[in-house]
Amino acid sequence: MPMIIVKATRGRTLDQKRELVRRITSDVSEVFKVSPDLVSIEIVEGELDNWARGGVLSIDKVKAAPSSDK
Q1: How confident is the model at residue 13 (pLDDT cuts 50, 70, 90)?
Q2: Which region holds residue 53: left if phi is over 0, alpha if psi is between -120 and 50, else beta?
Q3: Secondary structure (3-state) at 54
């Protein structure tokens, strides 16, 4: 039974999550040749202050990004 964990920052809509799990289920089912009912998916959402890349918290990168408002 395939078990998929998707990690993402908070902020996605319920409709986006529905579409994501629909697509992942379809692809995994096809590639692994298993029934879609056997594909298990967990979406784990985190806050930007709990993620880092290159030694910098993601929340600090967002704060430092220039505004696109003109």
Answers
A1: very high
A2: beta
A3: coil
If phi > 0 it is left, if psi is from -120 to 50 it is alpha, else beta; for residue 6 that is beta
Total domain count for the chain?
A: 1
Please give the structure tokens belonging to residue 3.
């078990």
pLDDT digits (tens, 9 = 90+) for 18-50: 999 999 999 999 999 999 999 999 999 999 999
Is 0.85 surpassed by the pTM of this model?
no
- For the record, the structure tokens of 48 come out as 């930007």
Q: The tokens 């880092």 sit on which residue?
A: 52
The rounded distance, in Å, linking the Cα atoms of 33 and 57 is 39
The CATH number of the domain holding residue 56 is 3.30.429.10
In a domain, 47, yes or no: yes
Range of the domain at 12: 3-64
